[in-house]
Design a protein that fits this description.
Mean pLDDT: 95
Shape: globular
Distance between the termini: 41 Å
Low-confidence stretches: none
Structural class: alpha/beta
Number of helices: 15
Number of strands: 17
Radius of gyration: 21 Å
Length: 420
């Protein structure tokens, strides 16, 4: 089994880290334990030129970084593969509404990326942003993708995000068929996004028969794998798309806790207001502070389309794991700042002692973690694996928080250690 993160961005996308280049993506994929990574941003000509220069073909339809571009200190072990991917932002009018839909596209080669990019360049500007904004109807985009490359896969991205998605609360559709028309049978998977998880999506009949995929949508290399897919296939493009299309070899997903996503509940960031769907309905959809319209979150929108009770699980459902990135676990357990030097030092020490991040979060015995990082981190990871977390939900662009150990619990553990 390997871990695949297919939706990321390069440094040519708006609001991304300058380290979103191939050497740093390869370096971080090794540290995380990611076996297959999307390239992101295949439409951008400068990024595509770097892909051609720095990657070399490996197995069918996937690439590896050339040895001379590998950063010093990159973790040993299996070399991560790259699959050609990118995201398109479609903004168009349909049925009297302005639709804003994002789509993730997977391609079997850089040659296919050249061919599709040439077609898209005739529609709009693909040079100014790695995730181009095109006035292209979703159905027409899918049609162009299939015309350019029948082996391509289009996956509606982060389908519940309020402003930019297939089912988004502001301008979204109600079914896949409504969005893609007669080409809907070519949609075999949807990306659930950070603010929802599989159990939420299982309640929606419109998603029956579709593979639920998860990806990081990372804008910096350190964010790789915050959501990802588990594959039990060869690392080839045909095996990957077969798993997505049929579920054969698709082992499930690694998820955020959906409450940690920044659009889980309703709210108003500028007013500091966070509301449940019931509270929003009671207030007529208006902010109790400023009186303006609230941003309707994923849970609220999903409730509108759900036809099954919470807890429903279809018989063909794939498994999933809810995790928190290791630096956030360390910070939450130790009382450090997530971006602080102490957290970074503890993170590096754990990787050196125990291997890649996902192995530590998912597999390493708790006793070994305690020996390498102390009982606080070990207890936090034990609780994470058991789902014993306290959640504060995100809203209107504000990420939620996950608490593993309260300050009182940390102090009690420290006192117990001191006595020993």
């Amino acid at each position: 089994m390997y871990i695949a993160d297919l939706h990321i961005h390069s440094r040519f996308s708006y609001a991304t880290s300058r380290d979103c280049d191939l050497p740093h993506l390869d370096w971080w994929a090794r540290r995380k334990g990611i076996g297959l990574l999307g390239t992101g941003d295949f439409t951008h000509p400068a990024w595509r030129a770097e892909l051609r220069q720095q990657l070399v073909p490996a197995e069918e339809g996937v690439y590896i970084l050339k040895e001379e571009y590998r950063l010093p200190g990159a973790a040993a072990g299996e070399t991560p593969r790259f699959a050609v991917t990118g995201e398109i932002s479609s903004i168009y009018k349909r049925s009297g509404k302005t639709r804003r839909v994002h789509s993730l596209i997977l391609l079997p080669s850089l040659e296919a990326a050249d061919a599709l990019s040439a077609r898209l360049e005739a529609v709009g500007n693909i040079c100014s942003d790695g995730r181009p904004i095109l006035g292209l109807d979703s159905r027409r985009l899918l049609e162009m993708v299939l015309e350019a490359c029948p082996e391509a896969e289009l996956i509606p991205a982060h389908i519940w995000t309020p402003h930019f998605s297939m089912f988004g609360a502001f301008t979204g559709f109600h079914t896949v068929e409504e969005c893609f028309g007669d080409l809907a049978p070519h949609i075999r998977a949807v990306e659930t996004g950070l603010s929802s998880d599989p159990p939420m999506n299982w309640r929606v009949p419109a998603l029956d028969g579709l593979t639920l995929v998860s990806n990081s949508d990372a804008h910096s290399p350190a964010r790789l794998g915050r959501e990802a897919n588990l594959l039990e296939t060869e690392r080839t493009y045909p095996a990957l798309t077969r798993a997505i299309r049929t579920g054969e070899g698709f082992g499930g997903t690694i998820e955020f806790f959906p409450e940690e996503g920044k659009y889980h509940l309703d709210g108003h960031r500028s007013c500091g207001v966070c509301l449940t769907p019931e509270e929003t309905a009671a207030r007529g959809g208006l902010c109790p502070v400023c009186g303006k319209k609230l941003t309707v979150g994923v849970e609220h929108r999903l409730e509108e389309l759900a036809a099954r009770p919470a807890g429903f699980r279809p018989p063909e459902a794939k498994p999933f794991e809810s995790l928190v990135p290791l630096p956030e676990v360390i910070a939450a357990c130790m009382g450090f700042s997530p971006a602080g030097k102490k957290t970074a030092a503890a993170y590096e020490a754990l990787l050196q002692a125990l291997g890649p991040e996902f192995r530590i979060l998912r597999e390493v015995p708790v006793a070994d973690i305690a020996q390498a990082a102390g009982p606080l981190a070990a207890e936090g990871i034990r609780r994470l694996r058991q789902g014993q977390v306290e959640l504060r939900a995100g809203f209107d662009g504000v990420y939620g928080t996950v608490t593993l150990l309260s300050p009182e619990e940390r102090e009690a553990l420290r006192q117990r250690i001191d006595k020993v």
